[in-house]
Amino acid sequence: MDEVVAQQTGRDRVADRWYELYEGRSTTPEEIDKHLAEMPSDDLAPPRGVFLVAHHDGELAGCAGVRLLDGGGTAEPGLRRTAELKRMFVRPAKRGLGAGGVLLAAAEAAARELGAGRIVLETRLDLREARALYARHGYADVPPFCEGPYSEVWLGKELGEELGKELGDRITG
Fold it and tell me: What is the mean pLDDT of the chain?
């Protein structure tokens, strides 16, 4: 249930922000459903993905998904996999409390557990707060790896093993 609430809350706020910026209006539930059907997230589940739900003080705080990209799915020694961060969202009431950084660290740890050596994401220019969060956590510009109406900025980060273990221990411990 938390996953559904997190996805609905995130999609509604982010979609409304895009529609208000580019169309001068709020989105309709039908438009949101149409866009979600065009961008399914059923790959954010094992064995090639994960969907994380964050709580703070007993309340839903946010969510994030991680999936292995098809081109980076090899398990051959010496070749690193690439994971993609999807559906990262922190509820407005939980922003400024560090939830975004903790959720991002958990997503990176999940990517490492999936065998990824790097993580990439795409976002929009108007999501300045999200881009600032990613920059604070070491993400840098990468060449475009996907296309879409909401893909305006592509970022990536190398995932070090030691740092991953330390963050994973901090999150679970």
Answer: 79
Tokens of 71: 């081109």
Beta-carbon count within 10 A of 7 CB: 19
CA gap 18, 8 in Å, rounded: 15
The 10s digit of each residue's pLDDT in 32-54 is 677 666 666 778 889 999 999 99
**Neighbour-count burial of 142, counting CB atoms closer than 10 A to its CB (0-12 exposed, 13-18 middle, 19+ buried):** middle
CA distance 91 to 55: 10
Looking at the chain, list the stretches that DSSP marks H as alpha helix, in order from N- to C-terminal side.
2-22, 29-38, 99-113, 128-136, 161-172
* Residues 81, 161: Cα–Cα separation, whole Å: 13
126, 150 Cβ separation under 8 angstroms:
no
Strand partners, 118: 82, 158
Better-predicted residue by pLDDT, 124 or 72: 124
Instruction: Return d(Cα 31, Cα 37) in angstroms, integer.
Output: 10
